[in-house]
Amino acid sequence: MRGAVIYAPGDVRFENLDDPKILQPTDAVIRTVATCVCGSDLWPYRGAEPIGDPHPMGHEYVGVVEEVGGEVTHVEPGQFVVGSFATSDNTCANCLNGWQSSCLHREFMSTCQADYVRIPNAHGTLVATDGHPDAAFVPGLLAVSDVMGTGWYAALAAEVKPGSTAVVGDGAVGLCGVIAAEELGAERIIAMSRHESRQKLALEFGATDIISERGDEGIARVKDLTGGIGADSVLECVGTAESMRQALHSARPGGNVGFVGVPHEVQVDGEELFFSQVGLRGGPAPVRRYLPDLIDRVLTGRINPGKVFDLTLPLDQVAEGYKTMDERRAVKALLKP
Ligand SMILES: [Zn+2]
C-alpha cells in the first residue's frame, strides 16, 4: 500500500509501505475512505516537535473494515466505520467513566494517511454506520473522528450551557467548536477571526459576533461584548502560549476555559489563575464517548462539520496538503485514496 511518511520539517513523502496486518486479536484493518491533515500534524512539519526517525503520519480516518481479529465482535468486514484518534477498549475504568482518551489500553493512531490502517482496540474504538453513508456525508463523518469530536469536548470542558456566552477561534477545531456551542445552546458565540472566509463559515455555523483583533485588544473587545467581565466559556483550540493567555483573560470570574490544542511552551501562572477564578480543563478529547451522538447529528443533517474541509486532494498529493495548510491557504485538507 501507499502512505505518508515524514522525514524532516517540511519533508512529507508519499511512499510504498508494508500492508498493515492484524497483530492482536483486538485489531482491525480498514481500507481508508477518507483521511486528512490535522493542525497538530503541522507541529512536527514546522519543526516545533522533534521527528526522530522517518515515520508514518495521520490520525483521522473513516473507512471500510477489511479484516478483524478474533476478539472483535462489534464490527465486521464490509462495514463503514468511524473511529477516534485515541483508541480505547471501552471497558476499563476510565472508559466506563467516559474518558476513553485515557483508556488504560490506549494507543494513539499515527498511520492514517495511508490506503489501509491497522486499528488497535478496534472492538472498543470503531462505530459502524447503518449501511454505507452517502458520499456527501463522508467529510462530516471524517470530521467527527477528531476535529468535531474535539470541538465538542472543548465546548463541554468550557461548560457551554443554554444561554451562555462562548468565545472560540477560527481554526478547524475552533470552527467545530462554534457548531458545538450552537448545538449546546449558547446564546452568544464570539468568533476570534481575521480571515474573511473563516469569518463567513463561523457565522454560518452559528457565531453571533466576530472579533478580528488579537492579544490584549482582542481580550478588550471580548470584555466590551460581555458587560466588562469576560465570557462564560472560552474554547482554546490552538495550544500556543499566546492563545492560552488570551483564553484565560477572556473568561469571566466563575467562567471556564476548555483547552484542546496540544500545549507547546504554555505556562500558566498559579497566582494569576488563583485570582482569576477561572476553571480550566483540557486534554485529548474522549471522542469515543461522543461518536454515536455526533454520527447521528451528521447523518440527520443537523450539523455539517465537513464544511471545514476547504481543500480535497488525492492521497498521493498529501505533501501538498501539508504545504497548503502550513501556508494557511487552507483550513483543512481532506485526502482521498
Ligand atoms: Zn479503556
TrEMBL record:
**Which keywords does UniProt give here?**
Metal-binding, Oxidoreductase, Zinc
Report the domain of life of the source organism: Bacteria
Read off the PROSITE patterns from this record. Answer: ADH_ZINC (PS00059)
Q: Which InterPro entries match?
A: ADH-like_C (IPR013149), ADH-like_N (IPR013154), ADH_Zn_CS (IPR002328), ER (IPR020843), GroES-like_sf (IPR011032), NAD(P)-bd_dom_sf (IPR036291)
- Which terms does the record give in the GO molecular function aspect? oxidoreductase activity; zinc ion binding
Give one Pfam family, short name only: ADH_N
Q: Where is the Enoyl reductase (ER) domain?
A: 10-335
SMART domains cross-referenced by the UniProt entry: PKS_ER
Q: Does the keyword Zinc apply?
A: yes
The cofactors named for this UniProt entry are:
Zn(2+)
UniProt record similarity statement = Belongs to the zinc-containing alcohol dehydrogenase family.
The name this protein carries in UniProt is IMP dehydrogenase
Please tell me the species this chain comes from: Streptomyces dysideae
